[in-house]
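User:
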Amino acid sequence: MTYDELKSLLLDVQAGTCSPDTALARLAGFPAETVTDGDGQPFALLDHGRKLRHGFPEVVYGASKTPEQLAAIVARLNARHPNILVTRVSEAASQAVRSVTPEAHWDAVSRTLVIQRDTTHYGAGLIAVVCAGTGDLPVAREALVTCEVMGNMTTLVADVGVAGLHRTLSRLDTLRQARVVICVAGMEAALASVIGGLVAVPVIAVPTSVGYGTSLGGLTALFGMLNSCSPNVTVVNIDNGFGAGYVAALINRQIGL
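Assistant: Predicted structure:
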């Protein structure tokens, strides 16, 4: 049930054209739905009310779920919501999902699976996703796909790390058109501070686990970004392109920003 549908239902109850019992019947199963396996054992409780609260349906984390579980979850979400996002999806799991929901699209680079029937742009402007190197591209594409399925105009600025600063500066006009910039970088992650110093909008920094030994699986990048001297830089978790994309999409919906 959408926000408008819920509001209309409440107005009908207020006007007396719909009884409370009828309204309760229409809301049966809202906002949660239990999903069970073949033996009747529950393994998921779907939060269908998430769209009313956040503006987008519940996003599914695909890692550690079986292909069968993911297929069942996506099928239930697909029955209620026009757009669905699943992250960290293996090829085997994507095949299981597409066997029951053929319209689902799997992106091998970002390991995301998307169903998008609503292509409305809800964001007020452009979100730029910048990645330092090609090795950071899977995380950057996860952020990009998240922004797109949530209804935003996006652009990807790839392979512009600080080892060749002229590459970043050559894309400055694009970056300054954005209302939000997502900066994805591993190694020492200096790119986030550079971008932050060049634009006057929020910069969401995503540290990646890309790098040699003392990168420590992304901890060096994380610490570097957390210690950025650019005050418009904020940071999400290591390799969390989804989290950055989600927050960027919410910021971009704020018309008055």
